[in-house]
UniProtKB/TrEMBL annotation:
This is DUF998 domain-containing protein. Keywords: Membrane, Transmembrane, Transmembrane helix. The lineage of its organism: Bacteria, Pseudomonadati, Pseudomonadota, Betaproteobacteria, Rhodocyclales. It comes from the Bacteria. The chain crosses the membrane at residues 46-65, 77-95.
Length: 111
């Protein structure tokens, strides 16, 4: 379990660092790959910040587990507030995104 948690934290940090650069990108639709959610640079930075917050949540969980005793009320409130911040950042980024035709799913050129 510790290996999985460490991997998830590192993945969040790596993905967050990539997204914080702020490049526009297209997130393909799950049901129809010809459509994609276009996320602008600001939206990408919000997703990157959310990944950093989630990495922080993972680190908080690891540190709390090392203590071996129940979490304090203040820790629980801080954890909840950070989880809601990450959720809000993801939600706002997706809300601001625009569904457009996926440029990567275009038909191959005829020869």
């Amino acid at each position: 379990m510790r290996l999985f948690l460490a991997f998830a934290i590192l993945l969040c940090i790596t993905g967050g660092a990539w997204l914080v650069q702020g490049d526009d990108f297209y997130w393909p639709a799950r049901g129809d790959p010809s459509l994609a959610l276009h996320l602008s640079g600001t939206d990408a930075r919000m997703l990157g910040a959310a990944l950093f917050v989630m990495a922080g949540l993972g680190a908080m969980a690891v540190l709390q587990a090392r203590r071996g005793r129940p979490a304090s009320r203040i820790w629980q409130i801080a954890y909840f507030a950070l989880a809601m911040l990450a959720t809000a950042l993801i939600g706002v980024a997706i809300w601001n995104g625009e569904v457009v035709p996926n440029p990567e799913a275009s038909a191959p050129a005829t020869r």
